[in-house]
Amino acid sequence: MAGVDVEILGRVLSTLPDDDDHPYRSGPWRPQSVERAVGECEVIGELPADLDGVYLRNTENPVHPALTNYHPFDGDSMVHVVGFRDGKAFYRNRFVRTDGFLAEQDAGKSLWAGVAERPEDALRRDGWGARGRMKDASSTDVVVHAGVALTSFYQCGDLYRLDPLTLDTVGKVDWGGAFPAEGVSAHPKVDPVSGELLFFNYGTEAPYMHYGVISPDNELVHYTDVELPGPRLPHDMAFTENYAILNDCPLFWKPELLARGVHSARFHRDMPMRLGVLPRRAGSGDIRWFEAESTFVLHFVNAYEDGDEIVLDGFFQSDPEGRGSVFPGEQSYAKMFRMLSLDGLQTRLHRWRLNLVTGRTTEERLTDSITEFGMVNAGHAGRPYRYTYASTGVPGWFLFDGFVKHDLLTGAQERYRYGDGVFGSETAVAPRVGSRGEDDGYVITMTTDVAEDRSECLVFDATRVGDGPVARVRLPERVSSGTHSTWAAGAQLPGWRTAEDPAAAVGLSSP
Ligand SMILES: [Fe+2]
């Protein structure tokens, strides 16, 4: 890139073949092995001066061939940051130095079995995850709590702590020695008002789930059992001002196979979904379970209290086993990947109303459009809200080809499509500095453009996303596709305001 200084921060060992043709290690999923920094990126259009903070994106980025079958959730964590201040943007990408990543860098090969492999095939007997013996890749989500970025693993594991500007791995969360042996699941939730972090975990031993609360001072202040009828595979939770909302979806490992150490998930259409409502600091005896139509929910969007009711929004799956998914590539992959595509799962925005007085659930489909990965203005998390920005998927693939702004008050939808061969990341909402309304700000995504072999970070005006980006930030290398992202305002980040130039403070800006 002419006129832009790109600093090479590091190169890690990759033993992947140059002609790799695995569908989730090639094309838009081509992994990276070089870490780079750009102090001031090239910008097409004009970055708004009131866009202030960092967009963080986690990606699954493998560096070694799998033992047998690679699944995209197995990839090592590479986090990308695009920082915005004073109408300029800086960029960095770094691997998270997880224990597993470091051990496999030393060994020069994969040591643990992935989600599509048999645990007994692992070369190491230790490991993490609800099913055990997996590498904690920490490549699923990224959130910012108490000024520190935390990366997570989709099946429960450690939380790795990253400097949100430099992306240096600064260790694992231990909460003063109170970090639970069962780990933390992929989606811990930050309450923007209380500053608390809410989380759950799950596993194959009774009570099968726990729920906990971390204070703004980073202490474990609450931890309780949540008794489930058996091992479950919950991925997400929700919260309101006063309640945590957990779930018992009827998609779980077949018990007879699980007894033999085989992890094969099946959906039980004849069983209801159950939603558990727990006062945020209460014990397991106070949980109230609400039954709802059978489904599996991968991601909830938000929840809030409305009189006697809790309003919970998320994505209902009409086909949680993805049997209708048609993977367009080699058919030996089709079964392995059928639970990855939004069209296969038939994911639609859905609202559950849980009445705390009558104990009744009412529910409704909010739209026929197939979307998932709904992001909201984080300042409205747990509180009444109106908008969610959710991704649209490429048929058969775990790839996003655009996004929809859903107006939950009017039902209106505004769409943007990235273009042929261009795939986006989860869209985070960045409130404008001095924001006066829920959509008074920007929507951010990071694209992978296979045809042009490049990536950009796109900035949309949240009030008119259909018009396309107001600015595009050029990144130094094509970024591998990935899963989750977040936004953190500069005001949340230590050193951001006091630094003359936050990019310089982390050694990024040229003099
Ligand atoms: Fe997720």
UniProtKB/TrEMBL annotation:
GO annotation terms (biological process): carotene catabolic process
EC number: 1.13.11.-
Residues that bind Fe cation: 187, 235, 299, 484
Keywords from the UniProt entry: Dioxygenase, Iron, Metal-binding, Oxidoreductase
Cofactor(s) recorded in Swiss-Prot or TrEMBL: Fe(2+)
Cofactor annotation remark: Binds 1 Fe(2+) ion per subunit.
Molecular function in Gene Ontology: carotenoid dioxygenase activity; metal ion binding
InterPro entries: Carotenoid_Oase
Family indicated by similarity: Belongs to the carotenoid oxygenase family.
Protein's name in the database: Dioxygenase
